[in-house]
């Protein structure tokens, strides 16, 4: 498979999407006392998933068909305009910002679908079938979401997200076409890895902006040190696996990578928000305990699944390792349930778990 590198324009586009993800994460800081964890996470995901899917759509097109020609650059830059509209409309107050949200999302997805249409006649047989399938089917989800404008009240959101769900499942339904035109695994992992790296940096910035460690404020300093240590653990585990344990010559549809990273990115946002809530908000103990351990478990499980598929055979983790990781995180969680501890101790436990996870898995 020909070598394919991430372009500077792709990286610039990623920075805009990181701004959207960062703004989505702020929704997690607006939790109300007594709010159910499920409702809380639902609000966040309703905002986060369209942003993630808009980025994934463009990333997968560039991976399979992008040539970095003038028309590719023009369409990507044009798409960024709609991403900015989408960012400006991200809010828990959906009714107030619904129209710009819809315009931004539909604009991004329509350009991606048009890009697939534009390459149909330029590709060889199997590539042509994959492009034709995606070019024609993506318009179904776009049409359904667009129809939401004709409804009022809560029903328009059902129509909007029904279209998004259809859109997300289309690559899964078309696996028989996509498997014959596999992704460029090296490029795809590099693209997701770079976005993940930027998100790590964004997490540090967002955490420190709230903690404001000052001389003599040992609580803030402790949270800052443990937060930084946690991000370093994530970096160690993620990029050591990416560079040393992964067989990038594997030919697949890339679906485990793209869908798995949805949960990686959600969990990173949850962990960043939970650290800030532990430090700065009077949120119920058991709520925040469930929240941070849920985030840690999602990150552990999603990274394990994503990397397991692409590991060299002799590097794959065994059932023993899975049992070890689960026993550690469950033990910490149960201990905190029966013997309430401070936020710093909870954060220290999460650190210990991920340090062990990073060491054993790399």
Q: Explain this structure to me?
A:
- The protein has 362 residues and is mainly alpha-helical.
- The chain folds into two domains: 171 residues, no CATH class; 177 residues, no CATH class.
- Helices cover 78% and strands 0% of the residues.
- The protein has 13 helices and no strands.
- The longest helix has 29 residues.
- The radius of gyration is 21 Å and the shape is globular.
- The mean pLDDT is 86.
In the predicted model, the low-confidence regions spanning at least 5 consecutive residues are: none
In helices, the fraction of residues equals: over 70%
What proportion of the residues form beta strands (DSSP E)? under 5%
Sketch the major β-sheet.
none
- SSE series: HHHHHHHHHHHHH
* Number of continuous helical runs: 13
What value does the average pLDDT take? 86
Backbone CA Rg:
21 Å
Overall number of domains:
2
Distance between the termini: 27 Å
Helix and strand content put the structural class at: mainly alpha
Backbone shape: globular
Report the strand count: 0
Quick tags:
2 domains; globular; single chain; mainly alpha
Question: What are the SSEs and their pairings?
Answer:
Layout (H helix, E strand, L loop, with lengths): L7 H18 L11 H29 L4 H19 L5 H26 L5 H22 L8 H19 L1 H4 L6 H27 L6 H28 L9 H26 L4 H26 L8 H20 L4 H19 L1
Q: What's this entry about, in short?
A:
The protein has 362 residues and is mainly alpha-helical.
């Amino acid at each position: 498979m020909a070598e394919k590198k991430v372009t500077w324009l792709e990286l610039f586009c990623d920075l805009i999407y990181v701004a959207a993800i960062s703004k989505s994460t702020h929704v997690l800081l607006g939790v109300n006392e007594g709010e159910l964890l499920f409702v809380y996470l639902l609000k966040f995901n309703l905002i986060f998933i369209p942003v993630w899917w808009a980025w994934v759509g463009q990333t997968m097109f560039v991976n399979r068909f992008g040539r970095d020609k003038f028309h590719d650059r023009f369409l990507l830059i044009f798409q960024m305009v709609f991403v900015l509209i989408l960012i400006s409309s991200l809010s828990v107050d959906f009714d107030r910002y619904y129209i710009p949200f819809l315009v931004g999302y539909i604009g991004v997805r329509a350009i991606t679908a048009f890009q697939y249409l534009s390459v149909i006649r330029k590709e060889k047989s199997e590539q042509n079938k994959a492009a034709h399938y995606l070019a024609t089917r993506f318009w179904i989800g776009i049409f359904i979401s667009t129809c939401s404008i004709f409804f009022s009240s809560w029903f328009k959101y059902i129509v909007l997200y029904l279209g998004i769900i259809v859109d997300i499942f289309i690559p899964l339904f078309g696996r028989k076409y996509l498997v014959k035109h596999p992704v460029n695994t090296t490029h795809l992992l590099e693209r997701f890895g770079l976005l993940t790296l930027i998100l790590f940096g964004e997490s540090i910035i967002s955490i420190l902006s709230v903690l404001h460690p000052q001389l003599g404020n040992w609580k803030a300093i402790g949270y800052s040190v443990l937060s930084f240590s946690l991000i370093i653990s994530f970096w160690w585990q993620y990029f050591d696996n990416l560079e040393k344990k992964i067989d990038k010559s594997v030919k697949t549809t890339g679906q485990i990578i793209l869908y798995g990273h949805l949960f990686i990115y959600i969990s990173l946002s949850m962990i960043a928000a939970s650290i800030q809530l532990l430090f700065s908000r009077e949120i119920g103990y058991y709520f925040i305990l469930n929240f941070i351990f849920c985030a840690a478990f999602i990150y552990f499980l999603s990274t394990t699944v994503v990397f397991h598929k692409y590991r060299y055979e002799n590097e794959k983790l065994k059932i023993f390792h899975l049992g070890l990781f689960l026993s550690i995180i469950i033990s910490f969680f149960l201990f905190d349930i029966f013997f309430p501890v401070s936020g710093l101790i909870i954060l220290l436990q999460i650190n210990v778990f991920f340090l062990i996870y990073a060491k054993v898995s790399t």
